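Quick review question:
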């Protein structure tokens, strides 16, 4: 006798009714008996029960309330406002009223948040439009009025006020070039000659020679500088990803720094130069960036730092401390008590002209005035930063102050910083910056006792 592996199915002539109980949201209940209702009829009954107007129903007060709400979470409505399932006891009147109040409060808070956010976005948009409009007006003023008449207008009060507000990015490079000047009389041809020498040196250093060629000390230093450039370029504004290997400005920056080491072998390449050159590359053509770069580094302050003239650097620090004590006596005393000397934080600020320490857009605005006012503004900016953060710094010890000043916050408020810079007085006993600096150079013993080793 053959036996099937599975139980034999029993055939029925009539379809079997579903006997299993149905499932609802809050429990298992038996299926309703009786004929199935038309879905449209169920929807109409539901709307009538909940006070919603159908084609023939008048508009209910609840509907009016919901129409006036711009925001209403439907899932929350179902849980709070609607009745419980039929298999559960109905809500007490007090509980239903409490839930309705909670729901209305929640909707009101959500609407308030949305309104506040919308107002915030509207204000941001208005501020952005105003800024763009002011920049457009400034660009027109610089291009049509100031740049064509540079020599006559560059020292006027109107231009100085515009300068302080920040130079528009589209004309920034032109203004920088004119303000820095070209006292070295560097031409585009000279740049290409220096670049050719640098490329030749790179080829020589890349090809191992059997016997080293006889070279003077300056040339040897220049070759080591060229190798150091390759390491530093990838560290220059790494968050921008445009100066790294394969980036659009990698070769341009490499060329300018290499050409400069051949132009000034006595200086060579020093760490920090890459940031200055990178800022110029972002605002000027390559040859013009090289000209501005060479002239900027030829200024007395930059030359003192990049040639590591310790005596002159110490004089600059002493002059800075004179104005530090004049403007911020309490913070100066706190620094002195903790033996925090300016060289700890000023070196990085001066070496890179704040391009590494401040956000790039703010650093460019500092450069705007630096190109106009010279080295004095670099130290004035330093005092402005100390003034901006003096309340924070006075609560710190040596370690935390040094860490804070060598790594400033990522978001430095531009307008507040320039307000503090403007409040700095660069006079001490009726002497200006240059007079104080000259007096210290003639008599180094008059410098600040804090800096004496």
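Suggested answer, residue by residue:
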């Amino acid at each position: 006798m053959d036996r099937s592996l599975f139980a034999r199915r029993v055939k029925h002539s009539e379809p079997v009714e579903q006997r299993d109980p149905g499932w609802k949201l809050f429990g298992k209940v038996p299926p309703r008996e009786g004929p199935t209702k038309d879905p449209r009829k169920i929807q109409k009954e539901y709307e009538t029960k909940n006070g919603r107007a159908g084609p023939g129903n008048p508009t209910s007060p609840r509907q009016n309330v919901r129409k006036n709400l711009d925001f209403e979470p439907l899932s929350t409505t179902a849980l709070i406002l609607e009745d419980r399932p039929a298999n559960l006891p109905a809500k007490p009147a007090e509980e239903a009223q409490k839930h309705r109040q909670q729901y209305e409060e929640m909707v009101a808070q959500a609407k308030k948040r949305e309104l506040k956010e919308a107002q915030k976005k509207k204000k941001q948009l208005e501020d952005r439009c105003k800024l763009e409009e002011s920049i457009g007006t400034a660009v027109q003023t610089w291009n049509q009025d100031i740049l064509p008449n540079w020599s006559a207008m560059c020292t006027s009060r109107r231009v100085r006020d515009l300068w302080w507000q920040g130079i528009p990015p589209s004309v920034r490079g032109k203004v920088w070039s004119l303000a820095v000047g070209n006292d070295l009389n560097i031409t585009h041809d000279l740049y290409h000659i220096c670049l050719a020498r640098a490329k030749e040196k790179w080829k020589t250093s890349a090809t191992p020679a059997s016997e080293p060629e006889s070279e003077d000390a300056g040339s040897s230093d220049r070759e080591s500088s060229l190798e150091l450039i390759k390491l530093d370029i990838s560290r220059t504004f790494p968050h921008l990803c445009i100066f790294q290997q394969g980036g659009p400005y990698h070769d341009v920056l490499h060329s300018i720094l290499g050409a400069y080491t051949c132009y000034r072998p006595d200086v060579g390449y020093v760490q920090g130069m890459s940031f200055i050159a990178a800022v110029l590359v972002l605002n000027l053509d390559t040859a013009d960036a090289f000209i501005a770069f060479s002239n900027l580094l030829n200024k007395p302050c930059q030359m003192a730092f990049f040639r590591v003239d310790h005596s002159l650097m110490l004089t600059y620090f002493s002059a800075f401390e004179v104005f530090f004590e004049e403007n911020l006596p309490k913070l100066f005393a706190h620094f002195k008590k903790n033996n925090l000397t300016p060289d700890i934080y000023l070196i990085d600020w001066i070496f890179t002209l704040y391009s590494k320490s401040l956000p790039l857009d703010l650093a460019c605005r500092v450069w705007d005035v630096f190109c106009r006012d010279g080295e004095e503004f670099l130290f004035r900016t330093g005092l402005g930063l100390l003034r901006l953060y003096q309340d924070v710094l006075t609560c710190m010890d040596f370690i935390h102050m040094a860490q804070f000043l060598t790594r400033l916050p990522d978001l430095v408020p531009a307008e507040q910083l320039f307000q503090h810079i403007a409040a700095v007085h660069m006079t001490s006993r009726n002497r200006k910056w240059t007079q104080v600096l000259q007096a210290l150079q003639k008599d180094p013993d008059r410098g600040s006792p804090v800096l004496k080793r």
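Why it works: Residues 31 and 57 are 31 Å apart (CA to CA). The chain has 22 helices and four strands.
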